[in-house]
Amino acid sequence: MTGLPPSARGTAPGHPKPQTPVFWRVNSRRAARTQAAARRWGSRGRSPLALLFFALFFPIAALAQPTPAAPIEALNTALENAEKTGSLPFRQRYDALAPVVDHAFNLSQILQTIVGLRWAQIPPDQQAKLLAVFRAFTISSYAANFSTDAGNSFRVLPETRSVGADVVVESEIVPKQGDDPIRMDYVMRNGTAGWQAVDVLQLGTISQAAVQRSDFRALLNDGGAPKLIESLQQKVDTLSGNTIKP
User: Fold this and answer.
1) Helix (H) or strand (E) holding 160
2) Would 172 disulfide with which of 119, 176, 181, 200, CB 3.0-4.6 Å?
């Protein structure tokens, strides 16, 4: 979906030489800092072997730090693959999406936000069952809605915006037919599992958690957690053709 970096495209006569990509300039500065830190570390009596270990693994650890956009980039890739594999059995596609959804979303936090203060009044065994069926509903929704290879592309936009301690990652679904892109933003929060989405903003503004809140709370008012669990399982059955039973 992206072109070659400037350094790989060649330089036409009379045109200035392409600049070194920012990624490599940043890495060069990081390498210089690493070497300086290694020299300071070694000057304190560390062994050459320990110094080598530090020099090798300190840059790797620094590069491995995830960004708020990383889980959404992985989710977009998985959704593109889901569209291309729509002919496979639902269970197989569900299982392929499940770990990506688990990584991208803090489903426990999302569910508690939707349910609200009543969450603390639900018995622990019903909380666990409700979370399991909510997870199955979320994954099944993605597997069912992204099952046709329409040639869509998914991209994360470079801009982000902060909402308190959270970061909104902006994303688009770009139809192949040339229609306007569909905005799908993710409110990311950094927790014990790293950056995960705690809400989805449809069209960039409509909170999915807020939309689900009225439906979920109506069911809770009608029959408590068992009623909500039953309703979500019925939705999972419809989406999956009765193949997913959390």
Assistant:
1) strand 153-163
2) 181
